[in-house]
Structure formats: C-alpha cells, structure tokens
Amino acid sequence: MSTDPLVLVADDEIRITKLVELALADEGFRVVTAESGREALEKAEEYRPDVVLLDIMMPDLDGIEVMRELRERRPVAVILLSAKDSTSDKALGLDLGADDYLAKPFHPDELAARIRAVLRRTDGSTSGADAASVLVFDDVKIDLERRTVTRDGKLVRLSRTEWLLLQHLAANAGKVVIHSELLTKVWGPEYRDDLQYLRVWVSRVRRKLGAEPGEPGRIRTLPGIGYMLDVETADEESAGLDEAEEPGDSSDLIG
Predict the structure, then answer these.
(1) Contact 49, 6 (CB under 8 A)
(2) Of 102, 167, 179, 227, which has the highest C-beta tally within 10 A?
(3) pLDDT tens column, 170-199
(4) Residues 212-231: what's their mean pLDDT?
C-alpha cells in the first residue's frame, strides 16, 4: 500500500478538482475528490485523508461546516480554499480553525508547498530542548513537555499551529525570535517572508493567553525584527503593535 500522503479535494467546480488532482498527482500526492460538502464527509470517513482541501462555498454544506464536522470525528489538517482574498477573510478562516487558507486563483506549486508545510506541522516540533519545561506567568502555565497550556487552572484549547508557534516562543522565552525563523520553523521555508500571515497567528495566540484585543500582552513585538515571549516584565512594558502589511500576490493558474 502506498505511503504517499492522501489529499481529499472538495470543490463543486469539477474543473478545479480535476486540475488540482492532476497537479498534486504530479507532486507525488494521492488524491480523492468530492463535489459537495456531504460527499466530502463521506469520502473523509472512507479514505481517512492526511489533508483536506475545502472550498468554502459548496452546495448543501459549506466548507466551514464540513471542517467543523470533520474535527468532531477525528483530528485532520484542513486547508480552506476561497475566491475571497482580503486579510479579514483569511483571519476569519484561521480563527474558525483552519490550518491554512489559500485564495483562488492559486499556483499549483504554491498549493503543493502549503500541503507539505501543513503535513510537516502535523508531527513537527520546535527547538528548545534546553529551555525550562514549565513556564508560569500571570495566570498562565505552559508545560512544554506535556504540551499543555492552562489559564487560571483551566485548559486552554489550542490548534496544532497555535501550539507550535507558542511552543517555539516559550522554548525561547526572554529571547527575540526573528520573523523568518518563526515562519520557517512553524510553517516551513515557503513562508519565511509572509509577515501578514505570522501576524494573524500571533494575534490568535495572544488572545488565547488572555491579551485584550489590540494589546500585545506577553508576546512583545519588536517592529521589523520579530517577537518575544516576555515572562518577566509587566504587561504595560510590552508595547508595540504590528505594522499593517499585505503579503504579495501569488501566481494564478488554478481557480
């Protein structure tokens, strides 16, 4: 039996599913396709894919609802596909639990690279073996060995990507981690220049740690350099908000 990663592609536009299937097959992936949300759920149950590509706008069940149902059944990586490309749309997709978000039209090489990056994150880990295994600050406790985060004694639910980002910052607590290092370690070298993408995820982790909207909390921003998990100083000293920059557009061949 082949050990190549299996990708489920769900899109109601047959032209797109066929193009994606051909492109991913050339990149060494096994592919199954679905033309609706309900068919995607059936195929996911039957084939147990490693990654699911979901178009947000589909008949019967949209991609968001399919993702929710998939996650209730078992852990699976999900990449949302959408014709909408605004920063707010991307942030919404990620906030709803997607592992990645790709706007149509997209280049097949970019899609393959993002799938590989998501697969790496599935069982990847970050550096920092010499760091303290437990960090405690404010009402937060981060246990790097057990991979758990609690606030006021209650477990904080983190997505896989949120944990990997926080894990890398926590393993280097008190040290500045530059943007390119975070992007490369957590997402892969394909993302090393995608600062807007990083800002979205850092904002999500900040909220999980209790920061108010628009406030940095314990994850300090060093403009133009990187981020640091500051477990020593008071929150008031952790100043500086992210600059607003848009990532560059990708080549458009599919979609």
Answers:
(1) yes
(2) 227
(3) 988 888 899 988 998 888 888 888 898 899
(4) 90
